[in-house]
Amino acid sequence: MVEVNHKGKMFFTTPNDLNRFRANTFSTKEPDTSEWIDQISENSIFLGHWR
User: Which of 9, 12, 6 is nearest to 34 (CA)?
Assistant: First the structure.
């Protein structure tokens, strides 16, 4: 599990080095997703699952 600070705390499950790298570079590699997440209201919980 990786904690990423991006206008608050986000947690990513990181079962391997590639996932850990992607989580740690999330803010710069995924600007559109980051912008979308910024629109979620404060104190909300977002659960996502990717395969």
Answer: 6
User: What distance in Å separates the CA atoms of residue 23 and residue 27, rounded to the nearest whole number?
Assistant: 8
Write down the pTM of the prediction. 0.62
- Tell me which residue has tokens 């990717």: 50
Q: What is the 3-state secondary structure (H, E, C) of 4-35?
A: EECCCEEEECCCCHHHHHHHHCHHHHCHHHHH
Q: For residue range 24-47, what is the model confidence (pLDDT) as tens digits?
A: 998 888 889 888 888 888 788 877
Calculate the CA dihedral of residues 49, 16, 7, 47 and round it to 10 degrees.
20
